[in-house]
Amino acid sequence: MQMKSIRRATPADQIVAGRIYRDVVSSAHWLPAASRSQTDFAAASVGEEVFVCCDAENVSQGFVAVWRPDAFSHHLYVDSRFRNQGVGTLLLDSLEGWLPRPWTLKCANANRAAIAFYLARGWRWIDTGENEHGQYSVLESVAPRSA
């Protein structure tokens, strides 16, 4: 597998993250149609810390956006060209060491692939809710995943 690194997003990375966000959200069949049109990453991540996963050529493959005060992972998206290559796992693992646990996130229940991704990495269900995007689960990670 090609070497990948995680780093804080630069202004140029924010543009790429915006494209990834727009592409994923606009094609998210599990979201209501009105939600699929809300593709402004800058507006959706105000005040969040954004980190990108890059390959050896510095190509951004995905990102995680975190609301640090609540240790809340608000966004984790991977460019469709780089899915199933460990990018999402690397982004989650990068939180270790700088973001105190427990970490939490919300995930649309209809996004079964994402729910399975988090559960396979040791996250656990702690609550449910519903908002304008539909029903969601609140997941929590309290300990590093075992290798």
TrEMBL record:
<keyword id="KW-0808">Transferase</keyword>
<dbReference type="InterPro" id="IPR016181">
    <property type="entry name" value="Acyl_CoA_acyltransferase"/>
</dbReference>
<dbReference type="Pfam" id="PF00583">
    <property type="entry name" value="Acetyltransf_1"/>
</dbReference>
<protein>
    <submittedName>
        <fullName>Acetyltransferase (GNAT) family protein</fullName>
    </submittedName>
</protein>
<feature type="domain" description="N-acetyltransferase">
    <location>
        <begin position="4"/>
        <end position="145"/>
    </location>
</feature>
<dbReference type="GO" id="GO:0016747">
    <property type="term" value="F:acyltransferase activity, transferring groups other than amino-acyl groups"/>
</dbReference>
<dbReference type="InterPro" id="IPR000182">
    <property type="entry name" value="GNAT_dom"/>
</dbReference>
